[in-house]
Amino acid sequence: MSTNKEFNLLSDRFRTFYPVVVDIETAGFNAKTDALLEIAIITLKMDALGWLHKEETLHFHIQPFKGSVINSDAIAFNKIDPFNPLRGAISEEVAINSILDLVNKGMKIQGCTKSIVVAHNANFDHNFLMSAIQRANVKNNPFHPFVTFDTAALSGLVLGQTVLAKACKAIGLTFDNNQAHSALYDTLQTANLFCELVNRWKRLGGWPLKKIKKKNNICCHIKLI
């Protein structure tokens, strides 16, 4: 069983933020009007030595909300038939509440004060998630309203790559292009990538912060922003 010290490691690592990896497939680019069709999330945990790992996964096919727009170009790209009964789609509200139940539970266990979206080109997924939460009339949204961890930006810095498939391959992860643009697969790969980026920084000595001594013998911390 995990100890409280293990839980505190995750909270301390991201200034009490609880990272949740998210990928969303949609019927367009407008988060206010276009249908959300598929969503997956993966929560994360940190072991007693401070290494980041995947924890729990949720994945839902979503029924287009009433009055939503379905753009043919988006459907042709992600190859999702929104009205196929074999999808096993559920309402957006049910999916969002199930996700938030898991997130709130994880935040409490890990001693975190706010959840933060981790996604590849995170602004897109964050906007759709926030809009869906608003449509579900959630009173206490656990997610930060604008801060995200964008693995595209992080990969550009660390690996010189911003495309998810190329970033995964550059860091030594396999990537199946035939499974890409599935919310579940892309979330899994994004979670693997984020964990490896964070853990690689630790292996290189970038975390935890080290103390250095200046010439006048005054100690200071290296601040990483």
TrEMBL record:
UniProt-annotated binding residues for Mg(2+) 1: D23
Subunit description: Homodimer.
Keyword field: Exonuclease, Hydrolase, Magnesium, Metal-binding, Nuclease, tRNA processing
Active site: H181 (proton donor/acceptor)
Single biological process term from Gene Ontology: DNA replication proofreading
Note on cofactor: Binds two Mg(2+) per subunit. The active form of the enzyme binds two Mg(2+) ions in its active site. The first Mg(2+) forms only one salt bridge with the protein.
Family indicated by similarity: Belongs to the RNase T family.
NCBIfam families hit by this protein: RNaseT
Cofactor names: Mg(2+)
Role played: Trims short 3' overhangs of a variety of RNA species, leaving a one or two nucleotide 3' overhang. Responsible for the end-turnover of tRNA: specifically removes the terminal AMP residue from uncharged tRNA (tRNA-C-C-A). Also appears to be involved in tRNA biosynthesis.
Domain (Exonuclease) ranges: 18-203
KW Nuclease (keyword) present: yes
Single GO MF annotation: magnesium ion binding
Pfam families, alphabetized: RNase_T
Keyword set includes Magnesium: yes
Site annotation Important for substrate binding and specificity: residues: F29, F77, F124, F146
Binding site for Mg(2+) 2: D23, E25, H181, D186
Record protein name field: Ribonuclease T
